[in-house]
Design goal:
Helices cover 41% and strands 14% of the residues. It is of the alpha/beta class and 367 residues long.
Length: 367
């Protein structure tokens, strides 16, 4: 059994994907070829935003977002401590200071109450200037953007949605990628929408940000890439990856339905035994991961491993516990929920090609 089965997906989509790759090989425009623009149009239409701008990976997407927002040294950027390293890494990479926030116990996403506490504390200290929030759609569930948008507005902060895991999710019919001032995603192969290498994208309704992002991703280009009006990066999505993504995006809505069917079966079978993931009313998750919380994690993981059922821990180390951030702060506020989650979560096989027999095998081990 595979934790995420990219092989099964390729087998299913093979003829379509092969054909698309072949047409790139035939026209030979490997960098910023026509498939890149076609994909950007399809992505913008799917997410429901004015601009989709592809780039080299999800980490660069976040870095480009912070560049467009003008984040710099002396700025405080708030982000959850329970996330993948890249969310916090890009803040430090921009020479700003990450201020970590505890999690909501039920959704695993950034706790809005704790966020406001930490914004107030940063303002009181008067050393850093609060500038932005990066919220994460952890495991596929959009963060609480209706409340986050209120907090951002109240304190005059920019809001970035890190939808690396959230692509496909929704709140009240509005798609992940459409929240905040700028949203980002990743096409790393194992994400809900993945390519066959590295890839990423940014989403925004703001024309100015879109222009800046298109410039920053190609060496700060002006008229062309030999007219450089600012210092940028080299962060383009390969044409071949765009071609693959065009075919995968066509299949994505059907895959999204299957992911939700599988998640619902997990939940109805396991909700009496575990803390199962909560999807609040009017929210939809893309189920990048199906994650359980239990004090007996080691025992369960061992039991599944013996029967060749793969499980993973996302994440066993919070950002405030990472060696790279040791020098950062005197943390006088604690992170009880995030630390508990890091000690108690583990994730089950989850992908749209999981057969009902395979899922039943997983579930039988819990009975
Ligand atoms: C995967 C991921 C990223 C980074 O994406 P890459 O394409 O691997 O650079 C950023 N944030 C979160 C929450 C992620 O899961």
């Amino acid at each position: 059994m595979n934790f995420i089965d990219l092989e099964a997906q390729y087998k299913y989509l093979k003829s379509r994907i092969d054909k698309r790759i072949q047409s790139v090989l035939t026209h030979g425009c490997y960098i910023m070829g026509p498939e890149v623009q076609e994909l950007e149009e399809e992505l913008a239409a799917y997410v429901g935003v004015k601009h989709a701008i592809t780039c080299a990976n999800g980490t660069d997407a976040l870095t480009l977002a912070l560049m467009a927002l003008g984040i710099k040294e002396g700025d405080a950027v708030f982000c959850p401590t329970f996330t993948f390293f890249a969310t916090a890494e890009v803040i430090a990479f921009a020479n700003a200071t990450p201020v970590f926030v505890d999690s909501n116990e039920e959704t695993f996403n950034i706790c809005v109450v704790d966020l406001e506490l930490r914004i107030k504390k940063t303002l009181e200290e008067g050393i850093l200037i609060p500038k932005a929030i990066i919220a994460v759609d952890l495991f596929g569930l959009p963060a609480n953007y209706p409340e986050l948008e209120e907090v951002a507005k109240k304190y005059g902060l920019k809001l970035v949605e890190d939808a690396a895991q959230g692509f496909g999710g929704e709140i009240e019919g509005k798609k992940a990628g459409a929240f905040g001032d700028i949203a980002t995603t990743s096409f790393f192969p194992a994400k809900p929408l993945g390519c066959y290498g590295d890839g990423g994208a940014l989403f925004t309704d703001n024309d100015e940000y879109a222009e800046l992002l298109k410039s920053y991703r190609v060496h700060g280009k002006g008229r062309d890439k030999y007219d450089n009006v600012r210092v940028g990066m080299n962060s383009r999505l390969d044409t071949i990856q765009a071609a693959i993504l065009l075919e995968k995006l066509k299949e994505f809505p059907q895959e999204f339905v299957k992911r939700n069917e599988i998640a619902n079966i997990y939940t109805s079978s396991l909700e009496n035994k575990f803390n199962v993931p909560l999807v609040p009313e009017r929210f939809l998750s893309s189920w990048a991961q199906y994650t359980l919380v239990t004090e007996r994690r080691d025992e369960w993981m061992q039991k599944l491993r013996i029967e060749s059922v793969p499980t993973m821990i996302y994440y066993s180390t919070c950002m405030h516990q990472q060696s790279a951030f040791k020098s950062l702060a005197s943390y006088d506020l604690s992170f009880p929920i995030a630390e508990k989650l890091s000690e108690q979560v583990f994730s089950l096989p989850m992908h749209p090609y999981l057969t009902s027999e395979a899922q039943q095998k997983v579930l039988n081990l819990f009975s």
